[in-house]
């Protein structure tokens, strides 16, 4: 199975660009499904207006070997700058009609993978309510994901084994969230100079008559 993470961002663009992000995500998801690919919205940052997004993160999959080529073609058709031509729905007399958003693609297999071997577990004393028993016995478990430095402390149970399982589950979830944040930050950095985008470099031009 081939997987890729797609990020759509408005960078420093105005509110019209945040609207375009939301519309591009809709079109992208519809197009992917029509081509037999699996696609899901992993995370999105809402804009200040209803129906807008500052950025969005999607996971797209080719579930069969035959679909791998379709996935590659789909990705190359979106990666880069998207130019959206439309009158501003927010500023009636605004002359500008060209809005730009950025699309970047990350291969899931090239990202740092979750591996339990990268986790260091340490037992420690629980704190808080629970009486003398809780304080004297080291039932809490602290987990550290060494490559990222992420730490989680689990002390929900008096059972060290249960706390260990909870710690690993929470650490894995936190690692996934952290990894997505890294991707978002990386793409946002690339889009800091949003106004310097070249209009002729768009990989796709979409005209919206509103």
Automatic annotation (TrEMBL):
Organism this protein belongs to: Chitinophaga rhizophila
InterPro entries noted in UniProt: Pep_chain_release_fac_I, Pep_chain_release_fac_I_sf, PrfH, Prokaryotic/Mito_RF
Protein name as annotated: Peptide chain release factor H
Gene transcribed to yield this protein: prfH
Family, as annotated: Belongs to the prokaryotic/mitochondrial release factor family.
Pfam families listed in its UniProt record: RF-1
Prokaryotic-type class I peptide chain release factors domain segment(s): 125-141
Superkingdom, natural source: Bacteria
Record's signal peptide: none
Alphabetical list of PANTHER family matching this protein: LD18447P, PEPTIDE CHAIN RELEASE FACTOR HOMOLOG-RELATED
PROSITE patterns: RF_PROK_I (PS00745)
Gene3D superfamilies: 3.30.160.20, 3.30.70.1660
NCBIfam families: release_prfH
């Amino acid at each position: 199975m081939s997987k890729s993470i797609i990020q759509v961002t408005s960078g420093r663009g105005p509110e019209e660009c945040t609207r375009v992000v939301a519309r591009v995500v809709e079109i992208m998801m519809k197009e992917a499904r029509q081509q037999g690919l699996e696609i899901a919205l992993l995370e999105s940052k809402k804009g200040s207006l209803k129906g807008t997004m500052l950025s969005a993160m999607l996971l797209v999959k080719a579930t069969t070997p035959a679909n791998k080529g379709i996935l590659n073609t789909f990705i190359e058709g979106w990666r880069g700058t998207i130019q959206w031509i439309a009158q501003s729905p927010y500023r009636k007399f605004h002359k500008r009609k060209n809005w730009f958003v950025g699309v970047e693609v990350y291969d899931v297999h090239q990202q740092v993978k979750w591996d339990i071997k990268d986790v260091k577990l340490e037992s420690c004393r629980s704190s808080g309510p629970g009486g003398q028993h809780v304080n004297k016995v080291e039932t809490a478990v602290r987990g550290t994901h060494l490559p990222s430095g992420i730490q989680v402390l689990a002390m929900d149970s008096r059972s060290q084994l249960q706390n260990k399982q909870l710690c690993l589950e929470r650490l894995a979830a936190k690692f996934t969230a952290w990894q997505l944040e890294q991707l978002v930050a990386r793409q946002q950095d690339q889009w800091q100079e949003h106004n310097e985008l070249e209009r002729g470099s768009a990989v796709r031009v979409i005209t919206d008559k509103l």
